[in-house]
Amino acid sequence: MVKSLAQKRRRRPANERPLGFEEPQRYYEIVETKLRSAIRSGLIRAGTVLYEAAVADLFGVSRPPVKRALQMLEEADLIHRLNRRGYIVGPSGTTLQPIRTNLHRLSLNIIEPLGTGALRASWQRIYEAVEEEILSCSPFGTFQISEAILCDHYTVSRTVIRDVLNRIHGRGLIEKDRWSHWIAGPLSARRLDEHFAMRKILEPAALIAASGTLTPEFVMQRRDRLDSSSQDLSESELDHLERDLHWDCVLAIKNRRLIDAIEQNHLSFFINRQFAAKICLIQADPIRAEHRLVFECLLLKTPVAAAAALEKHIVAAASRTRSRLKVLSILKDVQVAPYLARSS
Amino acid sequence: MIRRHSRRPRLRVLGTHEILIEPIRQQAESDLGIIVEDQVADSMDAVRRAVTAQDSFDIYHQWHTVDLIWSSRSIQPIDTGKIAGWSEIALWSKDQIRSDGIGDGPQGALFLQKDGTLHSKPSDRASMVPTLHGVDAPGYIRSVRNHIVGKEPDSWSWLLDDRWHGKVALASDPSVGIIEAALALESSGHLKFGDIGNLEEEEIDSIASILIRKKKIGHFRGFWSYGEEAERLMSRGGVCLQSIWSPSVFRLRQTGVDVVCSAPVEGYRGWYAGLCLSSRVSGAVLEAAYAYLNWWLSGKPGAILSRQGYYAATPQRARSFLEEKEWNFWYAGQAAASDLVDPFGGICVRSGDIRDGGSYESRMSHVRVWNSFMDEQNYLVRRWREFLNA
To answer: Does residue B54 sit at the A interface (CB-CB below 8 Å)?
Structure first.
């Protein structure tokens, strides 16, 4: 088991990334780039004192990335050490009168990168990709997750990977074995039932709360899309129909905690998508009839009836999904991410 | 020759080694005037093909997989009005089978309901036409059994009993294997199960961890996927006790291996097989498929496979194609009046032999659990694979 992980690590091409994964810009890179251009353009004058704490405060990040950025600028001989906690702008060997200035007064234009989300926490940038990869393997066996290969795979630190894995653990998708290895799968029918049981409790309540904010046009648009869907649903068609009801309508609420609680049980959608992708197209009739009833009740402004229809739909979907999980049992060798190794 | 063949409908039949035997194929071609192309696989590969290659077969002679292949939309409903002899099928006659066996009994997923699901509630559309059924239990070499356990009654527990260490083999099919392991652990008192026909996640974990430990200390000598592998393990592989199917018992006896099919005090593992129609079949091939389905209930194929220890779905029809001495041995539990032959013409029963476990009624009425595709099928398949790879 360990050997195969080691082999995988050696085999992995250096720049291999999951499809659609965007290489994230790191905090220290953003800080280093901004300071470098500000120094070169003269926006930050020679002699300006840059304390780690002040720069961290300016960018709204912690000290370690700032420290690393300043070290890089020092290596580039754009700044040099003033004292233990600060640098002075200008090449080493120059004697400059230190200028102590309020960095917030400089027009460094750092609002923009913050606004675009480039400064999202490292774990957030890779969380969805890792979760999807772990979900993809979980019906098909027990897999050990290698933190080291995961770090290489996404070029992030152990700290970030542990953060990600702990969050995925919090969702109940992985656990630690007695040797403290992270383990994913195999997914049991009971686990699936538990997710559906939670959805059955939470989603009808959320729909009642959301019903006031859903306009008739919004609901009609989704009902019409349902009516014009294919008889047999592909993975993406199914995903669209599910999103129309279970995301756009049910989650149209402000209660962030309720949204989180519901999203933690979305594993069930994943099984049906896998089934549509790997086994056969999904028969649209039952989903169409059940979703339609919910939309009709919403259009009639009877949220309690809509919630009851939704509950009935979730119960029926649980039974269908359980049968589909059974069918997935016939699949033997599926492709998994390189940091996952089948336990034997 | 080729031109004559080209006018005859061709039926592609998917199934296992034990059922799709050459005498059956030839008899069907000759009786029905069609071309029968058998696609033979072990049980797991057959269901995998039925699910993932739905265009590759017209009929699937399946084994306990109905609800699974229905979910994967591999099969279409069968109009029972077109099946002569439907009402004579023994499996749902309480007069003929008195069994309280648990698990996926023969009627569990038999009839199509209005909501598109399968259920035992009768309707005029069925998921399959039952063809054969029977009971399985471990087989052992008589002399070794007498030496190891003396006069103790037959028991499933022997499969995991230390006294048989290094001499045991199991079926590698997870559905069969997990039930047999569960029966062994239940009867030895190691574990208790809420429903042995539908095991829970923790129960599967407990079974898997015991099996893995047993495997690592060398308890098992081998694993088999189809009958011939099981026979090799017993004739040349040093296996003295194993899960085994009826045709293998009688073939081994022909080669001089004195194998007994046990009659465990705990009861048997029951099984049934049936024909399903591919969801893709239509037109002239569909008509030929219905003819083939009807032929299976005519008694003739049931009689052929009775000679390897299986029971026909319509026993009385099969009887008309069996000699009285054959019926008396295979179904009535009486001593063979003379040597009897298997479907290939080899002598498999010697004059005076009595069938292990007795008559049809006494064997079929002692089903402890039916073969099942449990709710936790996916989980158990994964854990079972870990056991096989351990």
So the answer is: yes
